[in-house]
Design a protein that fits this description.
globular; alpha+beta; 5 domains; 6-stranded antiparallel beta sheet
Length: about 550
């Protein structure tokens, strides 16, 4: 009989009790009762034994497929991405594609520049490549060109600087790709040539920052088609289409059948403009985007670019675990934002949003405190797209405001004694990894308190650690009143001479809109990895 087991926290229907060995053993146990005259059935040369082995082999195969069919038939036990996609399609939920990171670029020009520079969609910039890290491409993705009049700029230190003027997103623009020609039949499907389509859910009727533009041309007449979540409510003459994305991130556009959505006229040429890319690799640090890749109007003027703030919001495609956990909440909200839980569930569905907390600031205003995927602060691009996404989901009288979360740096210093036959440098590296995971963005949340005991537990579990004493456990800059009330001063740091403070309760509480985070490595390089590790005097030399 089949059993339901839990493997890695997931329910799995297990039929493997009926494998080859168990089936063969069960059949052999029946021989004395069914065929008592057969006594040499264990002989490998016996033909009846060969038949039993063949039956057991076939039963093993059937049990395997029975197992897979049973597992993939339910959302709670399905393990393949294809099955999850099909299950969630039944409730109108589509797995999110990878989201592009975004940031603002600062431009600078020579002091003698007098030209009017126009930056258009698709103009590209990038980080520099290295041996172990390829360059990351960013593009100006807005539909409206950006015009900069160099003649109106005032030189400073020999350059004309325009700070934070150019919004860019990670990814690549594919222009006017020829998908094919319509044959006039219903339900035509045309695959896109490039995988990893960037597709975000904007509000119905939104034309800003469209990720996929589809046009047909016949006899000089151009028709632009509208992307919809479903063709179920389309009319016969409506130029609507949907996108289907499979388990390996290949996308295809699907047209209607003439009753639900229009059919492109026979002979019409179909072209698509879209963007591909997205992913966490786009969350690059400040100062890393400094190369002009495809913007000749800037290169000819010897212009320079630089991102003064880190790129944020880059997210990998939605995992099946997240979809299974999150989709029911979106379904219960009916894709309408009424309660705080509705706003949070819908915001988490939007690609690029890592964490969100919704609160009613007054009777008709909802404030969303948003942390982009990977941490950091909300970019203008993410804010505008998120507001557009909620446009057809919020009540008409409700105003949505988006605010950054408050990141609270947690300073931890641990003095570690290393077992004599271990390499101190390797142990320190492992301690940083173990302790740093406690403050990783993916595992922390709003108002989540930080416990001293967790750091002791993580560090003491590292191989090679003989003993550990945490001599500093505090928020970044406690006020004198907080120091007096909440901390114990245990002396001076032997390296920096600064006061060492430890929360006397072993717990650092946080407010509703605060998220714990490691100290900024640029400002505090000793805390690289989220913790500062000191060795005893004999190890520090």
């Amino acid at each position: 009989m089949a059993e339901t087991k839990r493997v890695a926290g997931q329910a799995i229907v297990d039929y493997m009790a009926r494998d080859y060995d168990s089936l063969l053993r069960s059949m052999r146990e029946q021989i004395p009762y069914k065929l008592p005259e057969w006594t040499d059935y264990e002989s490998e040369a016996d033909f009846g034994n060969v038949l039993l082995q063949l039956f057991a082999h076939m039963g093993d195969i059937l049990s395997y497929y029975q197992d897979r069919v049973a597992n993939e038939s339910f959302l709670g036990t399905a393990q393949t991405r294809r099955s999850i996609i099909h299950h969630l399609h039944l409730i109108g939920y589509r797995l999110a594609t990878a989201a592009p990171a975004s940031t603002l670029l600062t431009l600078d020009f020579p002091a003698d520049c007098r030209e009017i520079v126009i930056i258009r969609r698709g103009d590209a910039f990038a980080t520099r490549s290295s041996r172990d890290r390829p360059s990351v491409r960013f593009e100006y993705s807005a539909e409206q060109p950006l015009e900069i009049n160099c003649g109106a700029l005032v030189p400073r230190d020999g350059r004309k600087v325009v700070p934070g003027v150019l919004p860019v997103e990670e990814g690549r623009l594919v222009r006017d790709e020829l998908l094919g020609a319509s044959d006039g039949t219903p339900n035509q499907r045309f695959p896109l040539a490039h995988p990893r389509l960037i597709l975000r859910s904007l509000g119905q009727g939104q034309a800003i920052n469209r990720d996929l533009i589809l046009r047909t041309e016949l006899g000089g007449a151009i028709t632009e088609w509208r992307l919809q979540d479903s063709l179920a409510f389309g009319r016969a003459n409506q130029p609507d289409f949907v996108v289907q994305i499979d388990e390996i991130d290949h996308a295809a556009v699907l047209f209607g059948d003439g009753s639900f959505g229009a059919i492109p006229p026979a002979g019409a040429v179909i072209r698509a403009t879209y963007r591909v890319g997205g992913g966490r690799h786009g969350n690059v640090p400040a100062g890393s985007i400094d190369t002009i890749v495809d913007a000749p109007q800037l290169s000819l003027l010897a212009a320079g670019v630089m991102n003064e703030r880190a790129a944020t919001g880059g997210a990998d495609r939605e995992s099946i675990e997240n979809a299974v956990r999150h989709a029911p909440a979106v379904f219960r909200s009916l894709r309408r934002a009424v309660t705080a839980q509705d706003y949070e569930a819908l915001a988490r569905e939007f690609s690029g949003v890592g964490k969100v907390r919704a609160t009613a600031t007054n009777w008709n205003t909802v404030t969303l405190y948003v942390a982009p995927e990977g941490g950091g602060y909300v970019s203008d691009v993410l804010e505008n797209n998120l507001l557009a996404y909620f446009e057809d989901k919020r009540p008409v009288t409700t105003t949505i405001e988006i605010e950054d979360v408050d990141y609270v740096p947690i300073h931890v210093t641990a003095e570690v004694r290393v077992v004599s036959y271990y390499t101190p440098e390797r142990v320190v590296e492992r301690v940083r990894e173990a302790a740093g995971r406690l403050l990783a963005f993916d595992v922390v949340d709003f108002a989540q308190p930080v416990y001293l005991s967790k750091f002791y537990e993580a560090i003491e579990g590292v191989d090679g650690v003989a003993a550990v004493t945490i001599t500093e456990f505090r928020v970044g800059t406690p006020t004198p009143a907080e120091v007096e009330e909440d901390y114990v001063d245990i002396g001076r740091d032997p390296v920096t001479g600064e006061r060492l403070l430890v929360a006397h309760t072993g717990k650092i509480p946080l407010r509703d809109n605060e998220i714990p985070t490691p100290p900024d490595e640029r400002e505090y390089p000793d805390y690289a990895g989220g913790i500062r590790v000191l060795l005893p005097e004999e190890r520090r030399e």
